[in-house]
Amino acid sequence: MTDAAHDTHRPAGDGSAGPPGEDPLPRRVPVFAVVGLALLMFSLDGTSVATALTTISGDLGADLAWTGWVVTVAAVGQILALPLGGWLSDRFGGRRMFLAGVAVFTVMSGLSALSPSIGVLIACRLVQGLAGGVMLPAANGIVAHQFGRDRDRALALFTSVFPIGAILGPLVGGLVLTTWTWHGIFLVNVPIGILLVAVGLALVDDPPHRRTARIDAVGIALLVVTLLATMLTITRLGSPGSGPGWTALAGVVALTAGAVFVRHARRRPDAVVPVHLLAGRGLGIMNVTNVVFGAVVIGFSATLPLYAQVRYDLPAFVAGALLTGRAIGTIVTSAAAVALLRRLGFRPLLLGGLVAVVAGLVVTAVAPLFGGPTVWLLAGSTLLGLGTGLSGPAANNAGMHLVPDEVAAVSGLRIMFRQMGGIAAVSVLTAAVTAAEDPGVAAGIAYGVLAVALAVVGLAAARIPNRRGRW
């Protein structure tokens, strides 16, 4: 069957009024600004700390492999809280959970800045991630409610805020670290968070509630054990002097918990990861694509400053500033992608963007061919940013096109799979840098492996039927 037979094309601007009761609400723009700024703050925080990993490691007396948990454990918290956040929003209201998530995130930012040890900092970061995971489903529901029939474009623009913040984070972190201290990276969130809670109380309306389903506590617990045991295994492999017995035990626990988790998900109809959304109708390919895409987007943003420092000995601010090109490229092309989604469909934008991302990874991984390391890495970062801007909104909408009646569940899985990919990428890269005799070359090889993996999933994603028009 030809691709055209799969297209469900309805041109943008066709004059359709949409379903009754789905008119956009009057305060949608200021509400979008509030929830968008909250998402930007959360995203910036997730990667700005990456510029300070070596400084935190020396200041708190921890090796780099364990310090990498400061980045990855926040992602774990977010993954664990995503299903709980959706359930809480249904039970208590999206407005209340959004504001609660922002408030807790703000408090934990202040406590992170005051952490006296790496253990306390990791614990604070875990709670920060949990707060973000509660906030995100509520924020998506608020945006969808405010924009009605235009929710596809609004959500595409909204979800593009996250990668933009992830890109700008290292730049902000490098600036704060150069002019102040690593504690300031967390302190800057406090006044912003207080402002967001105050304005949100005045502006944000509560989306309609739905009947709440039971929360899959067993599934969430198994997911916790699987992710933490996997991270522990990778970290111990990258830590000099780690006993092989404990490392092997952590690996066995990770594999066992993962197997039990899959078995549990197959047997429980309301599992935290719905089995029917894992494969079929192109969902399996998109889930794998999201894992690898997350490894690239999150892993690259979190580790490029470290890579620039350990391979080319660039200063922290310069290393963070390398992602300026990626930020500009992503902003420009993501705006174009949002405008073209209904006309072209998601597949051309997704595939074109992935090609550019692979090229950017390859440029970053190899030694400079011209201009020195700063210019060369900036070129790779910019190229990767252009591709991320094109493919990000398209990938965000692909799963929702495939299963338009389960937007919330598909959105949660998309975020979860991307964060899982990011956790794996950051954990492996920091472990490789810690254990390798030549840390810079080891990280470059890891970027090359990511490029190959993304090219493979891109070829698989080319088989997904294209969809155009509204969903």
Automatic annotation (TrEMBL):
<dbReference type="InterPro" id="IPR036259">
    <property type="entry name" value="MFS_trans_sf"/>
</dbReference>
<dbReference type="Pfam" id="PF07690">
    <property type="entry name" value="MFS_1"/>
</dbReference>
<feature type="transmembrane region" description="Helical">
    <location>
        <begin position="376"/>
        <end position="395"/>
    </location>
</feature>
<feature type="transmembrane region" description="Helical">
    <location>
        <begin position="243"/>
        <end position="262"/>
    </location>
</feature>
<keyword id="KW-0472">Membrane</keyword>
<feature type="transmembrane region" description="Helical">
    <location>
        <begin position="348"/>
        <end position="370"/>
    </location>
</feature>
<dbReference type="InterPro" id="IPR020846">
    <property type="entry name" value="MFS_dom"/>
</dbReference>
<feature type="transmembrane region" description="Helical">
    <location>
        <begin position="215"/>
        <end position="237"/>
    </location>
</feature>
<feature type="transmembrane region" description="Helical">
    <location>
        <begin position="120"/>
        <end position="143"/>
    </location>
</feature>
<feature type="compositionally biased region" description="Basic and acidic residues">
    <location>
        <begin position="1"/>
        <end position="12"/>
    </location>
</feature>
<feature type="transmembrane region" description="Helical">
    <location>
        <begin position="182"/>
        <end position="203"/>
    </location>
</feature>
<keyword id="KW-1133">Transmembrane helix</keyword>
<feature type="transmembrane region" description="Helical">
    <location>
        <begin position="155"/>
        <end position="176"/>
    </location>
</feature>
<dbReference type="InterPro" id="IPR011701">
    <property type="entry name" value="MFS"/>
</dbReference>
<keyword id="KW-0813">Transport</keyword>
<feature type="transmembrane region" description="Helical">
    <location>
        <begin position="415"/>
        <end position="435"/>
    </location>
</feature>
<feature type="transmembrane region" description="Helical">
    <location>
        <begin position="97"/>
        <end position="114"/>
    </location>
</feature>
<dbReference type="GO" id="GO:0022857">
    <property type="term" value="F:transmembrane transporter activity"/>
</dbReference>
<dbReference type="InterPro" id="IPR001958">
    <property type="entry name" value="Tet-R_TetA/multi-R_MdtG-like"/>
</dbReference>
<feature type="domain" description="Major facilitator superfamily (MFS) profile">
    <location>
        <begin position="31"/>
        <end position="469"/>
    </location>
</feature>
<protein>
    <submittedName>
        <fullName>EmrB/QacA subfamily drug resistance transporter</fullName>
    </submittedName>
</protein>
<feature type="transmembrane region" description="Helical">
    <location>
        <begin position="66"/>
        <end position="85"/>
    </location>
</feature>
<feature type="transmembrane region" description="Helical">
    <location>
        <begin position="31"/>
        <end position="54"/>
    </location>
</feature>
<feature type="region of interest" description="Disordered">
    <location>
        <begin position="1"/>
        <end position="25"/>
    </location>
</feature>
<feature type="transmembrane region" description="Helical">
    <location>
        <begin position="283"/>
        <end position="308"/>
    </location>
</feature>
<keyword id="KW-1003">Cell membrane</keyword>
<keyword id="KW-0812">Transmembrane</keyword>
<dbReference type="GO" id="GO:0005886">
    <property type="term" value="C:plasma membrane"/>
</dbReference>
<feature type="transmembrane region" description="Helical">
    <location>
        <begin position="441"/>
        <end position="462"/>
    </location>
</feature>
<feature type="transmembrane region" description="Helical">
    <location>
        <begin position="314"/>
        <end position="341"/>
    </location>
</feature>
